[in-house]
Every structure is written in C-alpha cells, then in structure tokens.
Design brief:
Order of helices and strands: HEEEEEH
Largest sheet: 5 strands, antiparallel
Structural class: alpha+beta
Number of helices: 2
Strand content: 25-35%
Radius of gyration: 15 Å
Number of strands: 5
Distance between the termini: 17 Å
Length: about 90
C-alpha cells in the first residue's frame, strides 16, 4: 500500500512509463489503482518512429503488470519521507 499511496500523490504530474515491450510513454498521471494500473492523459511516445500507431492515441490505461519502470519528476519526490515510510512499514512487519 505504500507505493499505491505514493503514486496517488503524484497525480497531475508528468511521468514517463516504460513498458516491458520497450514502449516508453510520457504523459500526465491521471490516476493509479491498488493494482498499480495507471491512467495517463495527454500522452506522447518517446520513439514515434518505432511506434507510429501510437501517434493518434491521447489517453492510455496501462496494466500494472506490464510496467517495467516509471521515471518520476525529481523535484516532486520527497525521498526522505518515502525512506521513513519504508522503514516504518518494515518495522511493523517484524
């Protein structure tokens, strides 16, 4: 639940999502659900020559299981708060 809450706090920010099929999509994070499925608005493909069929797509729903990683805006991520929350969650498990 930690990452779900973290990604919910980034709603409205611009992120880059790289999928397992090497497709990278840049867009505004609209919403995230508990399965880490992602809704992006105003998307662009970072490599349009490789994926021309994606040029006409403006919004995307991305299943969480196909995401390789997400690039987040560095100035919007509070790393200290995230580290503290991870420590608290790890201690609660012990």
């Amino acid at each position: 639940m930690l990452f779900f809450s973290f990604f919910k706090s980034l709603a409205g920010k611009t992120v880059v999502v790289e999928l397992k099929n090497d497709l990278s999509i840049c867009g505004t994070l609209h919403s995230v659900d508990q399965f880490l499925n992602i809704k992006l608005a105003d998307i662009t493909v970072t490599n349009p020559e490789k994926h021309p069929h994606m040029l006409s797509v403006k919004n995307a729903f991305i299943r969480g299981s196909v995401v390789r990683y997400m690039q987040l805006p560095a100035d919007d991520v509070d790393t200290q708060l995230l580290q503290d929350a991870c420590r608290k969650e790890a201690q609660a498990i012990k």
